[in-house]
Amino acid sequence: TNADFEGGLREVVAGAKIVDQVSYEGLVPGKEYVLNAELRNKADESVIGKSNPDEPVKFTPESASGDVDVKIIVNDDVKAGSVKQGVAYEYLTSTAVDASGKDSESGDENKIAEHTDINDKAQTVDSHDELTPKISTKVDQLDEHEALKKD
Q1: Measured between alpha carbons, how far is residue 30 from residues 27, 63, 134 in Å?
Q2: DSSP string, 36-61
Q3: What does CATH list as the number for 2-126?
Q4: Cβ–Cβ under 8 Å, residues 35 and 56
Q5: Burial class (CB in 10 A: 0-12, 13-18, 19+), 94
Q6: What share of the chain is helix, strand, coil (3-state, %, to 5)?
Q7: What ranges do the domains of the chain cover?
Q8: First and final C-alpha spacing in the chain
Q9: What are the residues whose beta carbons fall under 8 Å from the beta carbon of 57, sequence distance 6 or more?
Q10: How far is the CA of 74 from the CAs of 23, 24, 46, 71, in angstroms?
Q11: In 119-144, which positions are buried (b, 16+ CB within 10 angstroms) versus exposed (e)?
């Protein structure tokens, strides 16, 4: 998997969006799966963001392996500068098949796979100090015989 900020933002802060590209293999083509994700603070593993639970990423793979993106939104209570690194965790479920790929007739949500490695660098997003625009100018002292003229 690979997680990165969406847009130009480079800080784990309230409302920031992270796009997590998840690679999968061994899925059953033609069966529906649901991918959910959360962002954890690397310092204490607390949950600081989640994919939208009202709009889970549902997909039906055409082949056993591939990639799918899930968007994670950082929680509203995460203040600027409070999180140095966030790590994406992913959870794959299905009501169509069980973890071994066999048809599931119960309709229950079956855990298929998860990726929850707090030390995975590819799943880590780092906060960077925002660039602060600056301008400067230098004026040399005019000699006593020169005057500023208005054009």
Answers
A1: 9, 8, 55
A2: EEEEEETTT--EEEE--TTS-EEE--
A3: 2.60.40.3930
A4: yes
A5: buried
A6: 0, 40, 60
A7: 2-126
A8: 61
A9: 34, 35, 36, 51, 68, 69, 70
A10: 22, 24, 12, 10
A11: eeeebbbebeeeeeeeeeeeeeeeee
Residues in the chain: 151
Q: Residue 118 gets which letter from DSSP?
A: T
pTM for this model (two decimals): 0.79
Q: Using CA atoms in the order 4, 62, 95, 118, what is the torsion angle rounded to 10 degrees?
A: -20
Among 24, 7, 83, 23, residue whose Cα is nearest residue 49: 83
* pLDDT (tens digit per residue) in 1-22: 676 777 767 788 989 999 999 9
What residues contact 62, with CB distance under 8 A and at least 6 apart?
Answer: 29, 30
Q: How many CB atoms lie within 10 A of CB 79?
A: 9
Residue range 22-53, pLDDT digits in tens: 999 999 999 999 999 999 999 999 999 999 87
DSSP-derived 3-state class of residue 135: coil
Distant-in-sequence, close-in-space partners of 64: CB < 8 Å, separation ≥ 6:
25, 26, 27, 28, 29
Element containing residue 72 per DSSP (H, E)? strand 66-74
